[in-house]
Amino acid sequence: MSTPALRLTDVRKSFGSTAVIMGVSLDVAAGSRHAIIGPNGAGKTTLFNLISGRFPMTGGSIALHGRPIDGLPPHEINRRGLSRSFQVTSIFPRMTVFENIRCGLLWSRGYKYSFWHLMGGQRTLNDQAARLLADVNLETRRDVPAGLLSYAEQRALEIGITIAGGADTILLDEPTAGMSRSEANHAVALIRRITAGKTLVMVEHDMSVVFDLADVVTVLVYGQVIASGPPAEIRANRAVQDAYLGAPAEAA
Amino acid sequence: MEVLLVSLLNGLVYGMLLFMLASGLTLIFSMMGVLNFAHASMYMLGAYFAFSVSRVVGFWPALVIAPILSGVLGAVVEMYALRRVHRNGHIAELLFTVGLAFIIEKGVQMAWGLLPVPYRVPPVLDRPLFHIYGSNFHAYRGFMLLISILMFVGIWLLLTRTRIGLVIQAALTHPEMVGALGHNVPRVFTIVFAGGSVLAGLAGVIGGNYLVTEPSMAATMGPIVFVVVVFGGLGSLAGCFLASLIMGLVQTYAVVLDVSFADLLARLGLKVTSATPLAEVLTMPLPRVGALLPYLMLILVLLIKPRGLMGTRDT
Amino acid sequence: MSAVGTAARPIEAGGAAGFVRRHWPWLAALAFAVVVPWFSYDWSTGRHSGFIVSMLSQIGISIVFALSYNMLMGQAGLLSFGHAVFLGLGGYVTAHVLNATKGGGVPLPLELTPLAGALGGLGFALVLGYFATQQRATAFAMITLGIGELITSCALMFQTFFGGEGGVSTNRMTGHSLLGMGYGAPIQVYYLIVAWTALSVVGMLLLTRTPLGRMANACRDNHERAQFVGYDPRMVRFFQFALSGLFAGIAGSLYTLTYEIVTYDTVAGAMSANALLMTYIGGVGVFAGPVVGAVLIVLLQSWVSLLSNSWLVYAGVLFILMVTFAPMGLTGLVLMHQPIWRAGRMGRLLGPYLRLLIPALAVTVGFVLAVELCSFLTIGAAQGKSFTLSRITVDPRSAPPWLIAGALMVGGGLWLRFAMRRFGATWGAVSEEIKRAEVRA
After folding, report:
1. Predicted-complex ipTM score
2. Which residues in chain C have their CB less than 8 angstroms from residue B226's CB?
């Protein structure tokens, strides 16, 4: 078995005396689509924050493609190929949509902290940004300040920024939260297209999205994994039904 | 040795005065997130109000009236101006208080002139209280210590024994939560801001005649109070108390100990001559460098331990 | 759907014509700066007005200083209370270099002297910025406050580099020049300032269009998101801080060349506050904002100071009003009119603006009167001056002037509130109309 894209080994996190994550071990296979579900307060977003380096772990270790990323700052982890989106939309509101996407590209294109390249003349960069813009269907909103977009448009932009850097491991935190049915369907189609060939880990509450997209589902309850496996298996799992899904009154 | 003991007493007196100022600022900063640049201006206004009022009715009524005037001013500023600016974010609030401090300084210059005013210690307290090691401990210093301790006890009782005090304590560390729990946070904010201004005004009343009452006193005292607040840490009055005393002692001892870095090096056997690079820096005696110390401490604290001594939150 | 093409922008008019069309305000300002001293040229004596040239030089220095400050404030979201440190240190370095040149050691042409200030500003910004940029937001502001006060105290204390209280004097007539000029006359220094100001403006404008400039904006908007696109916000802050110090150093050099002396007040809090004032009032959200602010503040300072002691009071009140009611600054206020201008409905605002004018004027006159009365009552009396308006002497100790001031402020204030509300209603109505028209279109 090849190295998993992401391996969590007995990860623990306490805020003061409150234990939030209590020994989570998880393998995410490269190229798979992995969903993490669970009731509110289970620690799903905290887990994401630990993986992406936003918070330090209290115990355990996390490895990205076999290399440990414990204690690395978020930008370091991002440079190693892991990118994430946020539950509360996190974009650059005063910059235009095009600029937002372009910022997502800069580091991976090697620009670093350059103050001698003029953006206007960077043809490859600008072409790539335009292509990404088209990918997330935001071409018509190109020069609008990102803060003025509608909610669904901002979520799409967020996804665009997340994948812009070419990361091969993508973490999406509730990508369809707050969306209508049709908006969510669009988002799922976008996610499926855009993460083709990459490793996707997502936190989701919308079960139809989960069972539509995911290859593997992990259930997190009170900071611990109670089940992990293919969607059908999870749907039928007794413990999961008790804790979260509820017994099927009719076939879902 | 005697000098050190005498300085200890003086440092404690000064430290308690600083605490009177810094406690209000810590409360305001911790609860409202506003670094109130105009806090030292309330100190200045307290001294000037006391000066003018005491010329009419004497020192003792002024001791009560002047802080109240400062408090009223603080309440008005909070209710009618700061609340509006709050919408524009923390930086806007900070800039507002910077502008306010500036205007108050200019206002004081216009109303009372550019030179120090003769705000004097009341004659009944203008005598030595006791002798220690050949120097007098001035009665007014004892008075200052008394008022500071009374104030300290008063705050402690207020915070621990009253309902509003409990709300303030909670809001010190978790302001948003307090609002979510249904307390009238804007009213609490006004009370804290006004209360802080009263404390600052009181500090001005008793400190203005002991130190000097002039238009630049706010600009001189302000940064020192910031250092104390940051040093003590956000959300912690105990840390503020500790930091005030430490700062009081440091500033007092710095003036008294006439040594320089070069003297220290000489003890280690290294001689500093005029040819040594940075000779000027090394031979500067401590009392002259004293002005630098608070700023050095501010920078060092923010770099090494940004949460301060006993802080519970980040700035 | 348009084809994804090159440069991803509609093809713009190329060549010189296109360049002029796009940048005409800047070019017009430059032309104006070159020509304006000649408006006050006395043809009989063959001299320029000293006052005007001095004021214009100050404007140039202030433009560079304010723009460098906005690299931190508006572009990177960093509030600094100690920016004058880099202006002053650049000035001190330049003074020492000039003295060394005079002594025959360094054959540096005067035209290139601001490079010394640039290097000085950059060097000190790298060292001090290394510490300051470890924090952000309020902690950063406090550290810069500490650094500013620290350096000011040092400037007063130490003789070798700072010259203590007396400062460092120098002479700009070093005899080295690329153009063979002596630079004794202020007008010659002025044109040198114009040249370096133009260079600095172009430099700082281009910097905003670089990866560093854009990421500074990104870190300002959302420093966490910036981390998650691979950037260390600390490094972005650090480099932006260093470059802003570079340009502040250039301003410092120009200062030294103009006044030929540098003292501790070039690094002091008041100078830093000046940068804050100019930048904020002009507007932090637009590149040209600080330019507008610098011009306005220097003009007001020069003219108001001739008439009154209380210039700083007026500046402070203006600042507080901007912070409370117009945090986007003057350029921001003007830009707010853009949609209305584009929809051709500016005419609708003309009447409401005129109706605002009179009460606003009344309040302002009343306030100025009150301030001047106060000032003459205390400070003026101590200086033995009396309050004269054209030929009428006003006695600040009598009641009538105070009553007039009070009536103007209170009456004007109430009227103003009423007029503001009506103005707001009109503005809202016009904006609504425009929005509905857009939706229909």
Report:
1. 0.90
2. 142, 145
